[in-house]
Design goal:
Rossmann fold, YbaK protein, BirA Bifunctional Protein, domain 2, binds magnesium ion, binds adenosine-5'-triphosphate, 3 domains, about 25% strand, alpha+beta, 6-stranded mixed sheet
Length: about 600
Amino acid sequence: MLMRMSTLFLRTLRDDPVDAELPSHRLLVRAGYIRRAAPGIYTWLPLGLRVLGKIEAVVREEMVAAGAQEVHFPALLPREPYEATGRWTDYGPNLFTLKDRRENDYLLAPTHEEMFTLLVKDLYSSYKDLPLTLFQIQTKYRDEARPRAGLLRGREFIMKDAYSFDVDDAGLERSYRTQRDAYERIFTRLGLEYVIVAATSGAMGGSRSEEFLFPTPSGEDTFVRSPGGYAANVEAVRTAVPEPVDATGLPPAEVRDTPDSTTIETLVAQANALYPRPDRPWTAADTLKNVVLSLAHPDGTEELVVVGLPGDREVDLKRLEGALEPIVVAPATDEQIARRPELVKGYIGPAVLGPNAGDGEDRTSLRYLLDPRVVPGTSWITGADAEGTHVFGLVAGRDFTADGTIEAAEVRPGDPAPDGSGPLELARGIEIGHVFALGRKYADALGLKVLDENGKAVTVTMGSYGVGVSRALAAVAEATCDDLGLAWPMGLAPFHVHVLATGKDPQVFAEAERIGTELTAQGVEVLLDDRPRMSAGVKFADSELLGMPLVLVVGRGLTEGKVELRDRATGERRELPVGDAVAAVGEAVRTALAG
Ligand code: ATP
Ligand code: MG
């Protein structure tokens, strides 16, 4: 059906929404694709819904081609299955929960592992039923701490989630590969550049996971790449651990006065002024910094821990949270530190921490975790737990130990890749897809077993695979837009061609209508700007804002039998005899769709 702008439910806006930081957000709102209903919650308007439908179609086709079958779960779910897996609490404040009139707990699902597991448990019981992959395209709810950038980080959003069920690890590996391959085809068809990176599995649990990131400086994820092909989300980077150092012959540690040295910078200055090294100056990398952090456990309890790391590195809270998920981490406040008399702010050292301050049942010291670079035999300047003093030459393994190591330090450009494939380079991206080999966590928690060939009950192994469908729409908008507005690829645009009737001449309007009708009859999707008494300038500007890939201008030139065809993305224009317009547009659309 030919869509006429005179009746299309659309108002374009001249002004940017006040909360919009990114072009895609600004433009999708201004061009009337979406409308904010509440923070992170959007209404889909006709143009937006058409793009969404096309993206969903691509995702659905590739899922079906990969052998997955579509189902559709409710978004409103009972508490019990999520209680059984621990996620009722592990999801923390991100979970939208509510009560029904009988005071029973419900949630709005953030993802559906539990429900898929139970559904398969309900209906299947034999190895012969497997492998199986199911999927849905459905609305998800997460009470994100910082909803952002319109559809990119919503509190209600659309996800394709698929789940695979296999009897053994080899089966899971095949299912995982099949989904991963399907993801490559999906993002290629959407025209979205992607990088596949190793990821942490977070609240999902499980063994192996990879993220598909759309690289863009405005992304919230940082990832690393090495020349030799290592790629990982910064949260998943394992530090390349140096070899232990032989510490025999090192002098004993010595406590020294270092007045007014509560920061690494002042400490290094004091060390060089008061206790210069003969061979070279002291640097921040010679110091061991002990950072007090407050962990909020999902059950509501709070714990202070201390992380020890080389003084030339900062704690990266996102990496630390990645390592401790679902725990939420914050720097400890002065009040929290003051409640622990052994912590002398600015002079905290290993002696009062972890196993160094006692062990066994009656241990009261804080947990102490070390950066993996603090290997046995390395020697440090660190706090001596008294105002104005530090200890020099404190040797890891000899003079102190810890409760374990933790990936808490920032990753820096030039750091070695853990697999020896060269120095790391850092970049930012937006996560558009995620594939997880979950293993047996959910099947174990919910009792999903099948009988194997020998009649023995075995626990099923699972994978879960998500695509951010509404986020992908915003990512495509972000990748393709320019200063003038949106600029959709042919396969995703709400309409293939925008036909503009400009001026006042009734002949122009009649001709534009005829062209639009003929194109529509050929299967071309046409948006016709037939709005009367609207200046050509406004129509041009709107066509640039709305972003159909082809714009056909029927206007003044018609008296000489000419129309103009514009390519929205390249800005290229060519004049055509009006009689050729339908054929030329039809051809251009078909070529673009085939490419
Ligand atoms: P993020 O790290 O961006 O919060 P996530 O790792 O929590 O995402 P998953 O649980 O892996 O997300 O969900 C699968 C996919 O759903 C993600 O790859 C992403 O594309 C999409 N997604 C997740 N959260 C949101 C959101 N708040 N708004 C829009 N899309 C989202
Ligand atoms: Mg993810």
